[in-house]
Design goal:
The structure holds two protein chains of two kinds. Chain A contains four helices and 16 strands. By secondary structure, chain A is mostly beta strands. In chain A, the strands form four sheets. In chain A, strands 1-6-3-4 form a four-stranded antiparallel sheet. A four-stranded antiparallel sheet of chain A has the order 5-2-7-8. In chain A, strands 9-14-11-12 form a four-stranded antiparallel sheet, with no helix packed on it. Chain A is globular, with a radius of gyration of 20 Å. By secondary structure, chain B is an alpha+beta fold. Chain B contains five helices and 16 strands. The longest helix of chain B has 14 residues. Classes of the chains: A mainly beta, B alpha+beta. The interface between A and B is large, with 59 and 56 residues.
Chain lengths: 254, 295
Amino acid sequence: MNELAAIPDLYGETLHWATARDGFESVLTIFNYLGWAFPGYPPERTDADVSLRFFAEEGRELESYSAVLGTGQALHLPVGKIHRDFRGVVATRMMPRGGMARRSATPQRPGRPIATSYFMLYEREGGFCDFSHELFLMRNKPEKTVSEWATVLFSGAGLDLAVVAMNNCAAITGAEGQSDATLRLSALDGAPLSDDYRFSLSPMGSLLIRIRDVFQEFSDSGFGPVTATLSGANIEQPLSLHLHGSGDFNIHHF
Amino acid sequence: MLREPLFRPHEPRAVYPVFADRDNRLSYVLRETYIAGLPAALRHAAGRLIRRDHHTAPDFLTRIVLDSIRGIQLNFRGAFFDREGRLIVRIPPFARVQYRQGFDVSINVLLADADVALQDGQFLLIADRGVKLDGGYSIGTVAAAYSNNSGFTCYRNAAFARPINEFRDHRPVGFRSIAPHMMISDEIDTSAYFFNFSSDAHYDFTANPAVTLLRDDGKTLEARFGVIPPFGARERSLSEIFGERVRDFLGGDGTYGTLIAEQEGVTIGSAHIIRNRRTNTMGIEHTRPTHMYVS
């Protein structure tokens, strides 16, 4: 057994976006898999402390939530029951009570952080559901480079489109930790279709950007597939939202 | 078992479900931050040659170096399998993208152009080179989108050139997927969708994962998922796997369960689907074997 001392940062906080507004609920679903990950360890070491941090859209941190999740147990937590009308970023960590390092870790090489493997289950009034695996790790220092994310958005069949941008940089205040970002739309051949939409995010802030609100030329649906490119520093992998006229929806990372 | 390989070892590929009752689309954008410059391409090619990596042919390494000078270009082709794992048709190149370009293609149209009736199955997407210069040669994420008159959903997953169930390279310990978002009600049923794919044309293992449905109070239901032929795939809902007893076990709005599927000796691709029978809508997402990544 690996008896290295506990390395708290090894169990990173991974990010996702949650909304409990406009008829949506977001249920964070997580399972304590650590009994399989660390075979041979007694349950009292693979039992885990799960901690959730909530960041409102302006980046303000709200009251956190924590729970003990026994080995092989699951937690299904409606975010709206913790913070009514919440919309923003959720950071989740699952830390085993035994604080084990990676099985191959050495004191000199503790290895990359271990993710929690949770999903955000989105439910919308009318019986519509979608779900999405966790995104990337929250960062505790600013990025030195600009990240760029791109995906194809679909506009046919009465789909209403949006993009969610999230800052991933906690514990950094001021300009260094914020995001100055741009969103632009292009044709699939790369030809620009819009001016850049520029916006800023506070550390751990987020923004739901409705395409028809910020790009006047895309105020009608049915313009065909377009490429959305979001770039900026300290930007988490963005999400696309497709809202169908029936009430159905899709929320997924770029 | 296939008559011949459908792709070269260095070519990124991924398999996506195709549903007979949906418009099935794939889309992709080649974004700037992936592209390697000449120094990185030269280092990569030299390293592969020195290590005599059998996954990377000399002509591919030459192309990586040339592309770093003239600009990268990816060509996409495909193949369609039915759920029994039979290769129905090979799809010739249908998209070419350069940096900052993308494609959006209807699998329904590709099949129609090939005189193949739309049916449940899987589309194998193949790119003729990867972008990231690492062991997996990823091209980044590809979106699989599904729509009908009632709704729209999509999921995005990366395509890699990693060997899968290619036993001359490695013997997988096994497969385990964990899906903590299972539910069933009068309207909603949740499915598991498993792919039994391989990068070895001679692969012939028939899978039949053991599945356990776990309730939050610790009670469980156990069953076999059902047979998945080599190169095949299968979707089975909770009620199909466990029978109607699952309604009493997990029934009711706001009650969730965790589905754990396990298969020794091979790797299986997995996705899960939440279907609403009344609205004829669905949500789909792949699972990730995070619990395997702690070694």
